[in-house]
Amino acid sequence: MNNTLLEFGPLSITYPSYTGGEERVIRVQERYVVKQNQLLLLSGDSGCGKSTLLSLFKGIIPHHLHAKIEGECRLNGHDLIRETGQEQVVYVFQNPYAQLVCSTVKEDLVFTMENLRFAKKDIAKNMVTFGHFFDLFPILEQKSAKLSGGECQKLVLAASLAANPTLLLLDEPTAFLDVQAREEFYRYLLKLKGHYTIILVDHHKEEVLPIVDHVINFPARTVDWHSRELEFPFINRGSNKKSYEISLQEVSFSYTKREPWLLEKFSMSAKSGEVVAIMGKNGVGKTTLFKLIAGVLSPQKGAMQLLCDGKKVLQKRWHQHLTYLMQNPESHFIFDSIVEECAFNSKFAEKELRQLLSLYLGEDIDVHKSPFLLSEGEKRRLTFIMAILEGKDILLYDEPTFGQDEYNKIMIGKFIREMKQQGKLQIMITHDQKLATAIADKIINLEK
Amino acid sequence: MDPHIHAIYLQNKFHPMVIVMVSLMAIIPIIVQGGFLWWGPFVAADLLLFLYAGLQVKTLLKIALFVFFLSFTVLFLNLLYPAQELRSGETLELFWSFTVYKSVLEASLLNFFRIFVLSLISASSTLVMNLDKLILYYASSKGDEGSKGKVRATFLKGFIVYTKSMFKGWERIKSSYVLLAALNSIFLLREESERISMVMKFRGVPFYRRHLLLFPLLVFAIKHSQRAALALIARGLSSDKVFYFDYSLSAYDQKLLLFLQSFFILWSVLAILLS
Predict the structure, then answer these.
(1) Which of B198, B227, B232 lies nearest to residue A95, judging by beta carbons?
(2) A296 domain residue, yes or no
(3) Nearest to residue B183, comparing CAs of A143, A412, A342?
(4) Do A31 and A179 share a domain, yes or no?
(5) What is the rounded distance in angstroms from the CA atom of residue B81 to the CA atom of residue B92?
(6) Does any CB of chain B come closer than 8 Å to the CB of residue A437?
């Protein structure tokens, strides 16, 4: 019996260049067959074309996003390149916020089922099953836009699974989940195995490998980053070499008077040369704590202080001593070229700047290109260059390894170690247990 | 989202169509330049209804203050640059040596009141109205057949038939969900704008260069709109989708609308006759 669901390859997908630069070509050299109810992992570096393939399976490319495709791709015998209307294929994107359509959690949960014309009783049944599984009942009436990243991801996953898809495409579904939620998700994936055909893109390869039936490995990109030596020149330049100490004593915080404390009687301290990792479940208040540490928010109760060489720094001046690396690297970019981003407030000579950029982003990097046009990994590396250039002595990282491939994760780990050797005070929010255990001096587990 | 506004959303006492209709009852006479006798009672009734629907007095006063500045600017411009046909007759001296024609002052004050009331009603109705529900109500009403027997109120029916004629079937579903995605993205845009502002502060961008915020925000908006459009495709939005939740008017809302519309028609006739 032929139980082939999807066949693809050899394939070549070419994205046209709108900026006059080179066209981006993604190639699948071999022919692959995905059988019904298989669980498949697409593996490879950031930017190698995994998400593009998923878009092709859903019919987004070439029917909604223009790209030139040569080769073959068939789902249940239908030519995906020439035919549209793959309703039963559900695609879960990397960024869960972008997938929320309705205003409340309960409406979003049923949205895909409504589109696939499920009967009301089936919608009700699936809503209970998946709402319960992903623990969505306490937030069912909430506004979707108010959800934390993890809650949002859980909602999108629940909505997709509830739609009982023929083919489920998951593009880094666990990126926003905490360790516990991620483990739970993999356990659930194991339960789904054999009942659904799932194609998964996930950078937590070690955790996923025991579950999946088959792995498709994409070859490395033209620049072989893996073989490169990791160097961090100029890392100690511009630094004031001052000694810092930050402390929070019995701090309580809530965004409104009506809500209960998000953080209650929380205390911590850290000093120069230390790496502190803040971990905890989604929605527990990690980002809020970070904003308090950064001096952006003030607690309603308790005390916070930042000491620079033993002298107290006024809270309104804390930002002058800190570098804040956001989860989304794009939030850092305010200029329209890479070189402008780096040159802003930098005391480095142009030659040194170019040396740094070619080291981190490749020798052929066009420094006049918009930073928004870089790949996700390159964007993250650029934010680290910006941190070196700023030369501040306290660094705050919000999920530094989020959405990064193995190479970038190693690079980030090494960067933090180097910064530690330079005596910088570093605090990071992370769901990456491996990274936290490997490099942090203190791990703070936030609990509700 | 402002927790206060969020609280208002939760306190929705009426279907948003009721709020739309009662707002229109006050706005239409103002737009057609009817007398105070015609629109005055409706404006008062609207404001009372909004307060009952959950709008707080403090918020209403804040809106009134913003709206006052807007209207005052218009008043000022009207006084400075009056229409040619009004520049005749009796003159008045205002403040120290500012001379205006009486007819100009009267027309400017009338415009001031109209703009003030119009903006006040529009802005405060937006706060008490659940826009998402309104959009989904529009999306879920399945053509004329679907609404037969449900919509008894003639004014409301006319409004729905008119809006339906603008977009039919698939277009209605698409336009509604695009609107809904756009509405939801306002909060994301606000959050992104806060994040970028924070980064700019940490990077030491001087205050006079904070306008640079617009560039990354525009990039975010363009990227987000593309992602949202793809999400609608990825989640299988279709023309013949079903609706699990009920967004239609309740019997209570229908009765209320019928009563308000009848009263509006009677009052309008009376006001026109009296004036």
Answers:
(1) B227
(2) yes
(3) A143
(4) yes
(5) 16
(6) no
